[in-house]
Structures are given as structure tokens and as C-alpha cells.
Amino acid sequence: MCPEPMPITARSHARTCSPRCRKALSRANKTSLPIELTTRDRWIRRSSSKVPLTVAGMAASSTDPRTWSSYKDATASSAGVGLGFVLSDVDDIVCLDLDHCLNPLTGRLAPWAAAIIRDAGATYVEVSPSGDGLHIFGYATVRQGRRIRRPDGTAVEVYGTGRYIAMTGRRHGSCPSILADLSAVVTKLTA
Asked: Sign (positive/negative) of CA torsion 61, 64, 67, 73?
């Protein structure tokens, strides 16, 4: 993160070399969502139990555009506990939901998840609300969501329409704030 070397007295978990760099990192993290998502009026609020809500706090639907709002309105609302982005068939934005693949204490990825992220390339990846999963966003044609069980009991879910994804804005690692083509990854996972 920092152009300066870390001070010798820095704590082992420090990510910045100075208060100035810490403030810059904080500002950068606030705007980490891709513009491809924030410019679409497909935002909702969500309850602590992941029930979709309108910005007014009423029930929302992942299939009814009348209950969605802009990113600006959703972030300004205090309904529920967080944001959600609705996946719709009007475009090819998809989300790969990797469950139980990230150690929340160490940040270490399971090897199978690291392989999927490597295959996805330079695209937006965020930590899920649970802290131990990842959401990989990109473009692909997915009209029917699928849950793919892995032999070790973990699962990968592939969604493209009729669902909403609970958003955190907590970017994973140094992933970019753009969406890439995930068609090859989706094909490999669903084959």
C-alpha cells in the first residue's frame, strides 16, 4: 500500500507506514465497488437475517424492479443492516458465491477457492458478510442459478438472475474495482 518502507517499530499487522497513508487507504476502501454495479438502479437494503428490504424498510423482491433503488438512495437509507445488489436478466452480471473458503482470522484461502479466483482473473471480489466466504462478480450468461457441491462438503453457487447478493464492500486482497468476463470459469464449474 505504501511507497515508504514500513517503520521498524510498526506492528506486525500494520498495513500502512504513516497516518497519511492510513487515511488514503481508508478513503480508497470506501469507493471500492465497481462502477458497473453502482450505476445500476438495482440496490436494496437487507435485514440481519438477509431478508431483502426497500430503502423505506418494507419487503423488497429480487424479481420486482419497483422495490429496487439507486446505490445513492440505498446507501443513504438506514433500513436494515446493510446493502444488497440484485442480479437481473437485463444484463449478464453474475456472482460466484464461494462458501467457507476464507479463514477470517488469517485471511488464508482454501486451495480450491484460490484456484477459482486465479481462473477468474482481474475482477471484483469481496468478502461475504459471514467473513469466511467470497463473492466474485463479473460477466457471463447464467439464466438458472446453480449450487455446486464439492466433494469436501463446501459449495460454490453461481447466480445470474432472480437473486440478490448481500454486499459488504470489503474488497478481497488487491482485486480491482472492475468486472471481467467469467464465462470460462462458469463453464468449468458447471461442466
From this structure: positive
pTM of the model: 0.81
The phi, psi pair for 37, rounded to 5°, reads: -95, -45
CB atoms within 10 A of CB 10: 13
Active site residues: 97, 99, 135, 157
The Cα-based distances of 113 to 85, 100, 110, 154 in angstroms read: 22, 9, 5, 10
**Burial class (CB within 10 angstroms; exposed 0-12, middle 13-18, buried 19+) of 46:** buried
Identify the three-state secondary structure at position 181: strand
Higher pLDDT, residue 17 or 121 = 121
Which distant-in-sequence residues (6+ apart) come within 8 Å of 27 by Cβ?
none
- C-alpha cell, 42: 438495482
| Distance, CA of 172 to CA of 93 (rounded, Å) | 19
